[in-house]
Amino acid sequence: MARCNTLSDRRAIFFTLFEDRIRREFQTQSADTMSTIVTAVSHILLPIPERPSILLCLASSDAKETGARIVRGIASAVMSAFQKPSYNVDKVTLNCSEYASTAEFWKFYEDTSERMRRDKVVVLKDFEKINAQVATALCHLADDTYAPFPQSIIIACLDIGNRFDSSNLKRQAPVTLAETFLEEKWEYFLDRVALTELLGRLTGRAVLIEREIPLRRRPGSLPSITGYLGPPPKLRRRRQIARSEMHI
């Protein structure tokens, strides 16, 4: 049987999974959030992307669990699109609390690079805990001129706690929230040039995750996302992918 290995196949798999397992599952999220997620992943589905995508997912304390579920769903859909069934989301997740010292710069660089190369996606959990100097490694990994693994996505999960009240969360753009939060954390550890460059890399595609109120699951509805999603249950006719091609 033919394998789903073309650009159109990858897009079909990702967008089918996105519609069925993310957009439908998380209906509280704004249209801007969903659009930004799609844009970030679409970039790495190009034949020859120039650089990796960085998706920065902000969540306040009450939305952190929702954010984790959405990020797992995105990572699983990307791995499915690139035929990575032997790895689960846990294996592409790095806990940033383990990179809280400047001595961890190269370890972080190597750990992140390995997952970008191997799995096309890396999830940075608890990104607010990473050392500022260590975080600058992302400027090299997502460099405009030479990015070592351009066909990959970095998903950073940022817990903003209760830093912003509900009014600011509604009024300010996610990019502004991210810049404010990270600048306050890092301004004493990086010079202005380094900080500006890092924030520019990180916050371009920032989304604010809203707390999702769980709905009672109806009989026959899709299961919750856990790890690798596997091939989608069906591909829509308009995407022109036959069932016989779904042996990934």
TrEMBL record:
What keywords are annotated for this sequence in UniProt? Membrane, Transmembrane, Transmembrane helix
Against InterPro entries, the record matches this protein to:
LAP1C-like_C_sf
What is its subcellular localisation?
Membrane
Annotated protein name in UniProt: Uncharacterized protein LOC107225601
Q: What is the gene name?
A: LOC107225601
